[in-house]
Amino acid sequence: MSQAGRRSGSRGKGHHILIKGGKIVNDDQSFYADIYVEDGLIKQIGEHLIVPGGTRTIDAHGQLVIPGGIDVHTRLQAPTMGMNSADGFFQGTRAALAGGTTMIIDHVCPDAGSSLLAAYEQWRNRADSQACCDYSLSMDIPRWHESLREELEALVKDKGVNSFLVFMAYKDKLQCTDSQMYEIFCAIRDLGAIAQVHAENGDIIEEEQKRMLELGITGPEGHVLSHPEEVEAEAVFRAITIARQANCPLYVTKIMSRGAADVLAQAKRKGAVVYGEPITASLGTDGSHYWSRNWAKAAAFVTSPPVSPDPSTAEHLSTLLSSGDLHVTGSAHCTFTTAQKAVGKDNFTLIPEGTNGVEERMAIVWEKCVVPGKMDENDFVAVTSTNAAKIFNCYPRKGRVAVGSDADLVLWNPKATKIISAKTHHSNVEYNIFEGTECHGVPTLVISQGRVVLEDGNLCVTQGSGRFIPRKTFPDFVYKRIKARNRLAEVHGVPRGMYDGPVHEVPASVRTAAPRVAPCAGKAAAPPVRNLHQSGFSLSGSQADDHIARRTAQKIMAPPGGRSNITSLS
Amino acid sequence: MSYQGKKSIPHITSDRLLIKGGRIINDDHSFYADLYLEDGLIKQIGENLIVPGGVKTIEANGRMVIPGGIDVNTYLQKPYQGMTAVDDFYQGTKAALAGGTTMIIDHVLPEPGTSLLTSFEKWHEAADTKSCCDYALHVDITSWYDGIREELEVLVQDKGVNSFQVYMAYKDLYQMSDSQLYEAFTFLKSLGAVILVHAENGDLIAQEQKRILEMGITGPEGHALSRPEELEAEAVFRAITIASRINCPVYITKVMSKSAADIIAQARKRGPLVFGEPITASLGTDGTHYWSKNWAKAAAFVTSPPLSPDPTTPDHLNSLLACGDLQVTGSGHCPYSTAQKAIGKDNFTMIPEGVNGIEERMTVVWDKAVATGKMDESQFVAVTSTNAAKIFNLYPRKGRIAVGSDADVVIWDPDKVKTITAKSHKSAIEYNIFEGMECHGAPLVVISQGKIVFEDGNLHVNKGMGRFIPRKPFPEYLYQRIKIRNKVGGLQGVSRGMYDGPVYEIPATPKYATPAPSTKSSPAKNQPPPIRNLHQSNFSLSGAQIDDNNPRRTGHRIVAPPGGRSNITSLG
């Protein structure tokens, strides 16, 4: 609908904008000041600003001026079974802007076996030509092999990608083993990137899917029954364990259930560097709709991990988001039309996965967290943009209203009300999973790259105007701690003398571990070895060093005495 | 050391025994009564019993009379690199009896690829000829092969085995994938078996071992460093998740760390049937000794999962044992001589794994838990015998002092103080990992099968006198709840009309998920995804739906709606 307006809007005067009388909200403080925007950047903040003539003035009295939202998780080009999602980069970013989100981080999902770099180029081409807001890319790693190391390095060093997603689900397709994850995490840590993980136990899911289909359950409720939340929690627990072993920062995408969120919160308490991302769907609705009698409606909710059927989940997640146990919000926007979803009409495992949410994200977070008083407007900014910018290393260019930052701004009206409906949304799907939700707080005006793109409910966007935002490695917000721990984590062996006692001789044939000792039960044949070594050699009894409790930290210093011989100690 | 005494057993005649003036302790209550034993069974309990003449009488003088201990986890015949542990069934069960344990459940560990049945027979025969106390056998499932189901069925139905262990560690050797675990759990549940899990993440251990070796750490401390307790906790969490999906009981062997124990405790509060078994080593000592400068001493502690280097671990585990979050105690007894351990002198991954503990188990639990006031005597009986008997379906034959139960009885002296040392222990190894520990509480008299086998510090045992105790499947202690949960957990789908809207047609070659890069990499500007508009037809189902107002759920139980089948388009 905005195709016509996109050239005319925000040309001459649009480049110089003065926002007057608004309350600027950052994640740390709020204050009243005017903002002068020029050339896509915030040039001045203060009162009584001196601005050139011809500057357009926007009155922001009674409104909040917040940094544009960053949606950390979208899949606008997700290829599934030969279909592309209903919202491409154009449609998707348009919806984003309509909801007050001025930057997205999209996931590149290469085909198994194809090159990561090729997939990256493919995504860049599409996004460059279609996106209407700034974007960045995360890379999925569908199948790990050693040669990917170089590609990862190239992506990190030359291509501005600093986050990589591994899958613990989708058995035989995308799923990684624990060993592979460990290797990937180590590689990512060395490169200074963020390890993201889709956390669900794919092995169990597959078995459960089989079981559901055998029980004759083929509808969308089978999806949620075969993806129970324990399976999500288990994978989160495992991912954190592996990341801790590798000393790699971990970012769990799509926190959909209470169990998963609690596991993550507990791990943080034990010191893990881990971040959690609830999405619009998990914050704004629940999974009771999988049991809807309307197939198309139920199918619209199908995503993985599924929206939890426990109706208290959304409440719980918004509480954890407010308390800082969860950090950022994404949307995982990946929509399919009903006809596309209907590919799985006789078998829920074939329903393409994904829900909408890129447009609704900001409003839902406001409605669920700020309106009931769980968080204040500063926290709201933190979880919708600032934290994301810090974690993904585009701070303070994004995620902050400050001189020199990108002019991605949103005028937020906390008094306005809007009802979410598929009739008015900007996505291409027939169903909106938040249908009928009333939101108190809406973006009234959105500025992206210094241009007004949403005003009075009208979008004026330019296809292809979005820029790729490259991101650097080793974000301080994440890696300062990791680096310090790396230094501390060195372990040393105990300097001992050579063991010079008797050694049991392993029969030469035994390397195969299967000792055919005596398949016909060798009666009472005393194990042939024992007495051989009941020699006079004895080290029992208390030892010279028994009283020295050597530990707590894993750092062992070389004792002053230097090398010693074992037999001299007994 | 007792080789002399074993043939000259005069007490073999004392088939009839009267224990006078003891305080009988069961897991539920204690009382003063006399006990009359005959033919290996408890025949009478009470005061002023009428007994035949010529009965040997033991004066208990108010001391405690408890059911003999059951050690649920021993490896007295564990093969490693062509050798076996130094304590075989004879040596091991002798040590057990000396410590007040009158029954062991040993693990049959088949080499991967060999049949479970053959291995079972091998163990059965070895134990029958050597064991001095009653025993039962767990069978470890070291690989999941074709035909294993039939063998498992035979073991459960005909051989008296009702517990099987699976491994989440030992990559490329015993380890099973999550899918296999799911399959194995499902099948074992259908047999009514107890599922034991060795819980450690083998994949990560393999990675860590590589890393530690690359760093040049080859000593026993590498064993602890490469198996941090997080990996144990992770596997416990995963095992519980899988079991709770299948609704089967799961039993974690060798709980060695605080975090693993905490996971079990938390899970129990949420409902899954989980049982945890700390062992003598984890209750009595800690893993600081891996850093001992004495290689042989450090190596003696090598077992998996390792002892936690956190010195507060034993205290924590004892507390959980006392409050019921952990239920039974084993020993994991599987000692190797220093020379055997020395196979791994240049590489800690080669050190054979196993520690002693069969003899020390009862006294360590008493000293750490009862003498410190964490648990009472009844709870002591529960965690050393009764709970084990219930879980493994031996109750009330074992684990209780009651008329008709086996005459496995221990007279326990809570005041006796004994220092554990390798010089006086019954095991054949040079090192005792509890060396120098002063323990309060020790058995005075041990009676096995109605015969006095330990008295005044002397053992009177016969090689091969132990009997195999067959166990039936579906122990009520576990399966009563499982059966009810099975009934209430039934699932049903939603009965809907057929979806009759448009269906997207998948291109004939769905493997090309994304359009081939070659065609697209030349930036085809503004080209909309070829499919999208195709379905922006007038077909629309947006807006509030007829059934929006009745949220259908909470339990997983969906009842077919009274309206019966409906058609999707009529709902829009």
Automatic annotation (TrEMBL), chain A:
Q: Where is the Amidohydrolase-related domain?
A: 64-453
Q: Which InterPro entries match?
A: Amidohydro-rel, Hydantoinase/dihydroPyrase, Metal-dep_hydrolase_composite, Metal_Hydrolase, Metallo-dep_Hydrolases_sf
Q: Which Gene3D superfamilies match?
A: Metal-dependent hydrolases, Urease, subunit C, domain 1
Q: Where are the transmembrane segments?
A: none
- Domain of life, per UniProt, equals Eukaryota
Asked whether the keyword Phosphoprotein is assigned, the reply is yes
Which cellular component appears as one GO term in the record? cytosol
Q: Which UniProt keywords apply?
A: Phosphoprotein
Under the heading Pfam families, the entry gives: Amidohydro_1
Q: Name one GO molecular function term.
A: hydrolase activity, acting on carbon-nitrogen (but not peptide) bonds, in cyclic amides
This chain's function reads: Necessary for signaling by class 3 semaphorins and subsequent remodeling of the cytoskeleton. Plays a role in axon guidance, neuronal growth cone collapse and cell migration.
Family, per the entry? Belongs to the metallo-dependent hydrolases superfamily. Hydantoinase/dihydropyrimidinase family.
The cross-references to PANTHER family, in alphabetical order and at most eight, read: DIHYDROPYRIMIDINASE-RELATED PROTEIN 4, HYDRANTOINASE/DIHYDROPYRIMIDINASE FAMILY MEMBER
The molecule here is called Dihydropyrimidinase like 4
Automatic annotation (TrEMBL), chain B:
- Enumerate the UniProt keywords alphabetically: Cytoplasm, Cytoskeleton, Nitration, Phosphoprotein
GO CC: one term? centrosome
State its location(s): Cytoplasm, Cytoskeleton, Microtubule organizing center, Centrosome; Cytoplasm, Cytoskeleton, Spindle; Perikaryon
Q: Where is the composition biased (Polar residues)?
A: 516-525, 534-543
Domain (Amidohydrolase-related): residue spans on this chain:
64-453
Q: What is its main location?
A: cytoplasm
- Output the InterPro entries linked to this UniProt entry: Amidohydro-rel, Hydantoinase/dihydroPyrase, Metal-dep_hydrolase_composite, Metal_Hydrolase, Metallo-dep_Hydrolases_sf
List the molecular function annotations (GO) for this entry: hydrolase activity, acting on carbon-nitrogen (but not peptide) bonds, in cyclic amides
Chain segments carrying region Disordered: 510-572
Q: Domain of life, per the record?
A: Eukaryota
**What's the subunit arrangement here?**
Homotetramer, and heterotetramer with DPYSL2, DPYSL3, DPYSL4 or DPYSL5. Interacts with PLXNA1. Interacts with FLNA (via calponin-homology (CH) domain 1 and filamin repeat 24); the interaction alters FLNA ternary structure and thus promotes FLNA dissociation from F-actin.
Q: List, alphabetically, the PANTHER family matched.
A: DIHYDROPYRIMIDINASE-RELATED PROTEIN 1, HYDRANTOINASE/DIHYDROPYRIMIDINASE FAMILY MEMBER
Q: Which family does it belong to?
A: Belongs to the metallo-dependent hydrolases superfamily. Hydantoinase/dihydropyrimidinase family.
Q: What does this protein do?
A: Necessary for signaling by class 3 semaphorins and subsequent remodeling of the cytoskeleton. Plays a role in axon guidance. During the axon guidance process, acts downstream of SEMA3A to promote FLNA dissociation from F-actin which results in the rearrangement of the actin cytoskeleton and the collapse of the growth cone. Involved in invasive growth and cell migration. May participate in cytokinesis.
Q: Know the name of this protein?
A: Dihydropyrimidinase-related protein 1
